[in-house]
Amino acid sequence: xxxxxxxxxxxxxxxxxxxxxxxxxxxxxxxxxxxxxxxxxxxxxxxxxxxxxxxxxxxxxxxxxxxxxxxxxxxxxxxxxxxxxxxxxxxxxxxxxxxxxxxxxxxxxxxxxxxxxxxxxxxxxxxxxxxxxxxxxxxxxxxxxxxxxxxxxxxxxxxxxxxxxxxxxxxxxxxxxxxxxxxxxxxxxxxxxxxxxxxxxxxxxxxxxxxxxxxxxxxxxxxxxxxxxxxxxxxxxxxxxxxxxxxxxxxxxxxxxxxxxxxxxxxxxxxxxxxxxxxxxxxxxxxxxxxxxxxxxxxxxxxxxxxxxxxxxxxxxxxxxxxxxxxxxxxxxxxxxxxxxxxxxxxxxxxxxxxxxxxxxxxxxxxxxxxxxxxxxxxxxxxxxxxxxxxxxxxxxxxxxxxxxxx
Length: 407
Prior knowledge:
Elements: E1 5-8, H1 14-17, E2 22-24, E3 28-32, E4 40-44, E5 50-56, E6 62-68, H2 76-88, H3 91-94, E7 104-109, E8 118-123, E9 126-131, H4 134-150, E10 155-160, E11 173-179, E12 186-189, E13 193-196, H5 211-224, E14 229-234, H6 240-246, E15 251-257, H7 260-272, E16 283-288, H8 291-300, E17 305-310, H9 322-338, E18 340-350, H10 357-371, E19 375-381, E20 400-406
Parallel strand pairs: 1-4, 9-10, 14-15, 14-17, 15-16, 17-18
Antiparallel strand pairs: 1-3, 2-6, 4-5, 5-6, 7-8, 8-9, 10-11, 12-13, 18-20, 19-20
Helix pairs in contact: 2-4, 5-6, 8-9, 9-10
């Protein structure tokens, strides 16, 4: 059966030929056939030349999301091939069975793995899936079956409860897709043992994208600070950065978050690893507070720490929110600079895709200038290698950060 055809306006083919996966309505000249939401469509130029094949949704701002630039069928064999390629592309997957290796990581990273709209994360023996688009929602049971064939897991749980689904005409969807239901808390390992709530936690339950950056904190403390430091972990969620600090012993960690549930789980994580006993001089606090207000108070009180970690939620969801987001980032970075001891470190992040790395660095520079401090960039930060970014899809580089030495 011939799929409906989407004809691209003359002169608008370049992004498609360069393998950008999105086609907006403004680039479309004609629609031949009657595609329904989620249907596979063939994309051609005005002369009928094949450009790509993807899936259609007239209700979305992105009307076609491209799956392939080859003239090939999108069938179960295609899905098996692409899922297998993404899984095998994770170097960590090969070492997952080794003693001490992390057992939680991203398996499928949507457009960055050339499967738009699909997120799959692994937590030990369970997979958690997010279907962000209509077509993926229609295919999620087939995808679950294929993943179950490719991987040795106990079950798959769906966490498609994200706002972006509304733009696709979809409601939230959560629940077990296949196999056993996950336990209330799944225990994972990445240097420390961490409990993950895949039912209610942020994203699919945990911030897997910060794994490598948490390891940087652990090395800073053990190699540069001789195992002893005061660490302020802002927007701490369930305290993973703090756990990496406590690993070396001798650290005092202050976890700050507005969510009491997150802080209670942070305490469980601390207890799970035995850090609450303080046998090696480690200690901790958990504080439920508005980070903006607390940082302002700490700055006024001249309270300072060896390391300040600033990992806020997304401030800008689209280009129209960038200006307000920039003000928010500048405010918290300004007061964070004031809370770093001379010679100490600051690790600051933005996960707003609408904030570019260049803009974020300029915002942090502005905050530094107003703080009266000096700082050096030691490292530009991003997600780990289980969160690859397709070279043709710069929008995939949402997480950016700076490791700074502050004087």
